[in-house]
Amino acid sequence: MTTLDIAHQRLNNQRLSSSELKKPADVVKWLGAVQAQDYYAAKWALGQRMPNATDDTIEKAFANGEILRTHIMRPTWHFVAPADIRWLLRLTAPRVNAANTHYYRKLELDAAVFKLSNKALARALRDGNHLTRDALRTVVQRANIASNDLLRFNYMLIRAELDGLICSGPRKGKQFTYALLDERAPHGKALTPDEALAELTRRYFTSHGPATASDFIWWSGLAASDVKKGLEMVKRQLAKEVIDGKTYWLPWSTRALKRPSRVAYLLPAYDEYLVAYKDRSAAIDPKDSKRSPRDNVLFDSTIVWDGRIVGRWKRQIEKSSVTITLSPFTPFSKTETEAIADAARRYGEFLKLTPVLR
Question: Exposed, middle or buried, 243 (CB in 10 Å: 0-12/13-18/19+)?
């Protein structure tokens, strides 16, 4: 297996080049979790992994609670499936809380403060009362909990998410709301710690493989010892390849996958195709990944051709059109240009806008 084979298999296993997933919840469940601090980008990340998806499709699923958004795994937002959110939290929240310890201490947040803030949040959100961040900040202030420091208040919300108290509610206009997790996902799956570890390990390498243990540590935020244990539990369900001295794990079903046709993708910022791996060299040449300290391709929307990142793109939404500005690393060939135009067409259909390439 070559580096290009790794890229092509990841395109397939992440359901970018081949997908039978029909609903946003199916995509989220397949991938385990989807990084989603950029909400609009994350909706497109789901849309590309489904046939005939639109932005409205994803928004409706989010509003109905078919997919949830919360802080989980690494200390950032992720889309998760309601059935998975509880066991994922139990598995990964301790590591996220440990990562947040510095800020808890700096902001004078301890168990006593979190007990008070959680109680105030729970009282305000019960009976399906979905509130915005600003409204909840007022709730906390009225409970005589200092929250003039916005960062301090934000960490109260994050802790409530990690405690399994709150998660995303439907949006009010363009504003996000919070809801009680017990009301939003009352039937979450219960797994033992070992079952949860095995399940997340299997899902990651099945949906993101070929990948290494180091990649999984980065993506999940789990300790190396936990990842080692998880792989030991599911290794018989996975194939293993040693490439350039590194051990990669992947699903058996795609071990002999044929090279897919050359299709271009306009991936959003933080797409799982890049962010899910510590080593991203299969998708991008190191010289292109970071051209200056402030120019990191990981944080940009990227153009993929034949499994490799070949440039960046930006969008500008107008009333009836979306202008897509391309920034190639090197000039595109005619074939690449035609493939990218097709990718732009797909994005326009997703937004229900006319795409204009520039």
Answer: middle
Radius of gyration of the chain (CA): 21
Q: Which CATH number fits domain 193-254: 1.10.10.10, 1.20.1560.10, 3.10.270.10, 1.10.1020.10?
A: 1.10.10.10
pLDDT computed for residue 294 by the predictor:
45
pLDDT for 293: 43
pTM value surpassing 0.70:
yes
- Write out residues in the chain with pLDDT < 70, as ranges: 254-261, 286-295
**Cβ contacts of residue 56 below 8 Å, gap of 6+?**
352
107 and 215 in contact (C-beta within 8 Å)? no
In what helix (H) or strand (E) does residue 245 lie, and over which residues does it extend?
none
* E strand residue ranges, the chain: 34-35, 68-72, 76-80, 131-132, 166-172, 175-180, 238-243, 246-251, 264-267, 290-292, 295-296, 301-305, 308-317, 321-328, 354-357
Q: 138 Cβ partners below 8 Å, 6+ apart?
A: none
The helix or strand, by DSSP H or E, that contains position 127, with its residue range, turns out to be none
